[in-house]
From TrEMBL:
EC assignment: 6.1.1.1
Record-level GO BP terms: tyrosyl-tRNA aminoacylation
Name the record gives this protein: Tyrosine--tRNA ligase
GO MF term (any one): tyrosine-tRNA ligase activity
The encoding gene: YARS2
InterPro entries, per database record: aa-tRNA-synth_I_CS, aa-tRNA-synth_Ic, Rossmann-like_a/b/a_fold, S4_RNA-bd_sf, Tyr-tRNA-ligase, Tyr-tRNA-ligase_bac-type
Species this protein is from: Odocoileus virginianus (White-tailed deer)
Catalytic activity line of the entry: tRNA(Tyr) + L-tyrosine + ATP = L-tyrosyl-tRNA(Tyr) + AMP + diphosphate + H(+)
Origin organism lineage: Eukaryota, Metazoa, Chordata, Craniata, Vertebrata
Length: 478
């Protein structure tokens, strides 16, 4: 990397060294003189929380995004995702939705996979150091994350654009610019522009320094790499805005200061609120409560159910954050909910919109089928389910492939599937009503299985023992 040229150095008057002193919460009226500005709209939806820096720059942030107010159109906005796991999760979705809103308004967006930064581990919002990941693991996670990001961007475009022209969606990996980087060159060119006092003042650093475990140099330098990413994207892609969860503001500020020092130009940060669980913990990998976006970790049915379960006091907020539905439509949905709360209309709409965005129309159809099959005992739904759906739905269920011999009885089936104990106890479980096949109770152990009743069109039987023990049987040679 060539040493970055120092063009202007000046210290912003309002940007002290005290962490977040330059962050303002943008009021609706202040966001833009034209009340419908992109930032004002997203502020009203609750998606954009803080803006940094809001004032004191040559260009005011809202001006960047609106055509005809002197801002350069289109702008480029980025958000980074560290591949510390092999899938995105619901928390990431919020930052992604932020990017999608910019894309819809005609701007170009970059989703940056942190193939390099994930090796260090971001200390922001963490009380303990992350478990170190080896290079191969990070690389394979990075590939999976890139795929996930591209799949989401494709769904978004295909299902929601309706022929409209949007800005571009680009996926990059920061290992591309760190891979061949010489350490001494980097420190000489970049290190000199960071002041220790400022770096040490960050909340993420302060918290960790006060913890018994302390902080490693690798973690401490994390913010320098994220700042350099911003600079790199500014230079190569004209990127002036970085988006991130509100735990990212310290890192974004480091980027602002670095770019401002080197170029004299203004760049900006926008945060989205952190989504938390009912216990108040940030929803994500660290807290171990992530709701994943990859189908093999969280099925479309589970994602759908996660949103369907949301309480009334959160659902309106989530409709605004996680869907693209216009605000008047959300108002209407909420008004209907007051008159017919038992229908759980807002929850159903929220679950459907998010599942469609993440897993496409087919994923949404699968989630609805699974819901019918499990909670409404629908045989029609069960009958058209694929093996994959059944395994996703009955995750804990054992799956056996059996040959259907002539005269196979209910008792034979339960035994072959290892679903009941041997001897009279197993027999009694059936006669006492503890067994059902395809949602119908079977009390006669000697009944012979009937195709179309006990065996569905797709060659499957769903055996249930007691309240929640499921066994899936796939019949061979039917
Ligand atoms: N629960 C959440 N709510 C809102 N934004 C989130 C949430 N979790 C992560 N993000 C944001 O997504 C972006 C990428 O996060 P990243 O993959 O690095 O995970 P993280 O912040 O380290 O979280 P964790 O490791 O706890 O899952 C960041 O801007 C981060 O703030
Ligand atoms: N630090 C971010 C991820 C990220 C990585 C590189 C960046 O340039 C920006 C953001 C996080 O952990 O959430």
């Amino acid at each position: 990397m060539a040493a970055p040229m120092l063009r202007y150095i000046f210290r912003s008057q309002w940007l002290g060294t005290q962490g977040l002193s330059g962050v303002l919460s943008l009021g609706l009226r202040e966001a833009h003189s034209a009340a419908q500005g992109l930032l004002a709209v997203q502020k009203a939806r609750g998606l954009f929380k803080e803006f940094f820096p809001e004032r004191g720059t040559k260009t005011e942030l809202p001006e960047l995004f609106d055509r005809g107010t002197g801002g350069k159109f289109p702008q480029t906005i980025y958000c980074g995702f560290d591949p510390t796991a092999d899938s995105l999760h619901v928390g990431h979705l919020l930052a992604l939705l932020g990017l999608f809103h910019f894309q819809r308004a005609g701007h170009n967006v970059i989703a940056l996979v942190g193939g390099a930064t994930a090796r260090l581990g971001d200390p922001s919002g963490r009380t303990k150091e992350r478990e170190a990941l080896d290079a191969e693991r990070v690389q394979s996670n990075a590939r999976a994350l890139s795929q996930g990001l591209k799949a989401l961007a494709t769904n978004h475009q295909q299902l929601f654009a309706n022929g409209r022209t949007w800005g571009s969606f680009t996926v990059l990996d920061n290992s591309a610019w760190y891979q061949k980087q010489d350490l001494v060159d980097f420190l000489a060119a970049v290190g000199g522009h960071f002041r220790m006092g400022t770096l040490l003042s960050r909340l993420s650093v302060q918290t960790r320094l006060r913890s018994p475990e302390g902080m490693s140099l690798a973690e401490f330098l994390y913010q320098v790499l994220q700042a350099y990413d911003f600079y790199y994207l500014f230079q190569h892609y004209g990127c002036r805005v970085q988006l991130g969860g509100s735990d990212q503001l310290g890192n974004i500020m480091s980027g602002y200061e670095f770019i401002h020092k080197l170029t004299g130009e203004d760049v900006f940060g926008i945060s989205v609120p952190l989504i938390t669980s009912t216990t108040g913990a940030k929803l994500g990998k660290s807290a171990g409560n992530a709701v994943w976006l990859n189908r093999d970790k969280t099925s479309p049915f589970e994602l759908y159910q996660f949103f369907l379960r949301q309480q009334d006091d959160l659902v309106e907020r989530y409709l605004k954050l996680f869907t693209f539905l216009p605000l008047p439509e959300i108002d209407h949905i909420m008004q209907l909910h007051v008159t017919e709360p038992e229908k759980r209309g807002p929850q159903k709409r929220l679950a459907a919109e998010v599942t469609k965005l993440v897993h496409g129309q087919e994923g949404l159809a699968s989630a609805k089928r699974c819901t019918q099959a499990l909670y409404h005992s629908s045989i029609d739904a069960l009958e058209v389910m694929s093996d994959q759906e059944l395994k996703e739905l009955f995750k804990e269920a054992s799956f056996s492939e059996l040959v259907l011999d002539p005269g196979t009885s209910v008792l034979d089936t339960c035994r072959k599937a290892n679903a009941i104990p041997d001897g009279p106890r197993g027999y009694r479980m059936i006669t006492e009503g503890g067994v059902s096949i395809n949602h119908k109770q079977v009390t006669n152990p000697e009944s012979v299985l009937v195709v179309g009743q006990h065996i569905l069109k797709n060659g499957l039987s769903l055996l249930k023992i007691g309240k929640r023990n499921f066994y899936i049987i796939k019949w061979l040679q039917l």
